[in-house]
C-alpha cells in the first residue's frame, strides 16, 4: 500500500499533526511521522525530500508554524504532492504560518489546508483520498465515513426550537 509521510518542523507541532495521523489510521492508510525542519535540519530536509519517492511515499503532509518554509522547501525537491498544514503559532495565531505556506510561486505547488487541528485532520483526509485512487479498500472506508458523517449531522439537526 502507498505510504503517507507526515513531517513537522518541531515536536511541538505533534498535537496538531496527530490529527492527520488519526485520520489516516481510521482509513487504514500506512504513514510515518517524523520531525524535519527546513531551518534547523536543512540537510535532513534535502535527503528526506529527494528519497521520498524511493521510500514509497505517494503523499507528503508537512506541518509547521511561524516562518513555515517546510512544506514549500520539500515541494521544491520532489514531485510528490505536498499538503501544507499551518500550525497555530503563539505570536500571530497561525496567520504567519498560513501566509508562509500558501503563497507559493507559480510552478511549485503546495496544497494548503486550514490553520490548526481541523486543517491537519483534513490533510489526513485529503491524503487518504489521493491514496484511495489506487486503493479500493481506502475508497470504501472514505465513502462509509462520509455517509456516517452526513447521517450524524442530519440526526443531530432535528432541533425543537
Ligand atoms: N516553521 C518551522 C520550521 C521550518 O519551516 O522548517 N522548522 C521549525 N518550525 C517551527 O517553529 C515552531 C516553533 O518550534 P519550537 O516549538 O521547537 O520552538 C514550530 O511550529 C515549528 O514548526
UniProtKB/TrEMBL annotation:
Example GO BP: 'de novo' IMP biosynthetic process
Record-annotated PurE domain positions: 2-153
Binding residues for substrate: 10, 13, 40
Main enzyme class: isomerase
Catalytic activity, as annotated: 5-carboxyamino-1-(5-phospho-D-ribosyl)imidazole + H(+) = 5-amino-1-(5-phospho-D-ribosyl)imidazole-4-carboxylate
Keyword Lyase: yes
Similarity comment: Belongs to the AIR carboxylase family. Class I subfamily.
The protein, known as: N5-carboxyaminoimidazole ribonucleotide mutase
Taxonomic source organism: Opacimonas viscosa
Amino acid at each position: 500500500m502507498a505510504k503517507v509521510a507526515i513531517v513537522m518542523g518541531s515536536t511541538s507541532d505533534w498535537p496538531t499533526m496527530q490529527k492527520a495521523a488519526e485520520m489516516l489510521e481510521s482509513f487504514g492508510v500506512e504513514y510515518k511521522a517524523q520531525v524535519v525542519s527546513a531551518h534547523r535540519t536543512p540537510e535532513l530536509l534535502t535527503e528526506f525530500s529527494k528519497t521520498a519517492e524511493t521510500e514509497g511515499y505517494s503523499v507528503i503532509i508537512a506541518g509547521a508554524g511561524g516562518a513555515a518554509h517546510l512544506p514549500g522547501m520539500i515541494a521544491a525537491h520532489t514531485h510528490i504532492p505536498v499538503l501544507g498544514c499551518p500550525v497555530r503559532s503563539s505570536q500571530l495565531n497561525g496567520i504567519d504560518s498560513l501566509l508562509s505556506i500558501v503563497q507559493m510561486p507559480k510552478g511549485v505547488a503546495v496544497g494548503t489546508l486550514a490553520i490548526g487541528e481541523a486543517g491537519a485532520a483534513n490533510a489526513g483526509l485529503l491524503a487518504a483520498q489521493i491514496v484511495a485512487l489506487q486503493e479500493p479498500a481506502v475508497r470504501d472506508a472514505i465513502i462509509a465515513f462520509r455517509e456516517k458523517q452526513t447521517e450524524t449531522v442530519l440526526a443531530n439537526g432535528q432541533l425543537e426550537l
